[in-house]
């Protein structure tokens, strides 16, 4: 039994468009294409794949894929025990994470408040005593009733601003560090330690760049254990040797809390007992450029215990710092290589630009020379045309030879450069210019003029004769610039020579 024919008009617009796209690709008969498209949920891509690859057995899965239905997501299941364990692990990590080393920004030396003179100090002493007498009861009252506090607190520590009552002169960080070294040397003798003669902030920047260690020692002369710590622990030969070893790369910074910078460092490091020691170095686990406190030693301590703690932490962190130094050296070498490559590229580019500039200048010079040559040729052509025009004009103006019956005649024999001797008679009253014009226009006069119309005198042109007329034995030059008459210059007759003038020889 034959299948009924399919009426395309009964299909929707989208179905007709899909049918048209499918048949344009596969060139299949419409009667066979429509059932295949129906089985493919009118998806052209799936129908084309079925036409070329054959239909698979799982029609339901194909229909679902045609409808772009996403696969069902697995339900999320949480385990309370695992969450608690994960939270404890994170808490332990946060607990063992080293504290970031604070950066202290000291007051610039230019902004340091100078000490007043003795005279001003004596004058203001009564006011200072009166202020202390009034401020002491107010502080005690505010201590009892803190909610009535009106004085501003330090935003970092939450306490009133510390007033320097030690009587020490405020110095710059580097000068204060050197003063502490001198005081320790005077008190306990010369100590050969790797002192840092700069401030805490500068020392921190140095170890950050060098991937080394900074040993911060804070002391308070008012504390009872300071003398014992300095004499027995800090000056211990083993400790000094460990700190002095260049392989350990340790910088030592000692601060007296009576100084401003050391007091700020003690507050930032949360130092609550003296003497205080902190070992600071780069910590890659916190950040690529992070600097943290990796060891804290508080209070008096035996030299062996003190040194053992330093060595333990130092050995643990040395490998990380070595890796950091290697990476930094590699980055530096790559940076230097890139800089050298950029410099070489810039030099090569500059050389190319210079060559291009020279090539352009050479081309411009050639063009200017060609242009100048063309101009000179054009000027020479124009000059030759004007010279020829002048000769034709002057030839029409040359006076005719006098007749035999005229008197005062001068007979001249001229030896021309390219012709035989020419004998012609001139009137004695004719100017010397007439003789020169005859020689210049001799060829035109011999031709009898031209059939063309005689041209006029050329404008903007001054004719210069390229020859001179001279006589021999004795030699006399009849220069046209001197003027005069032919009769006066030559006499009754004469044998004259026409000499060409070569200008470059003159």
From TrEMBL:
The keyword Magnesium does not apply. GO terms for cellular component: endoplasmic reticulum. GO terms for biological process: ERAD pathway. GO terms for molecular function: ubiquitin binding. InterPro entries: Thioredoxin-like_sf, UAS, UBA-like_sf, Ubiquitin-like_domsf, UBX_dom, UBX_domain-protein. Residues 336-362 are annotated as: Disordered. It comes from the Eukaryota. This is UBX domain-containing protein. It comes from Amylocarpus encephaloides.
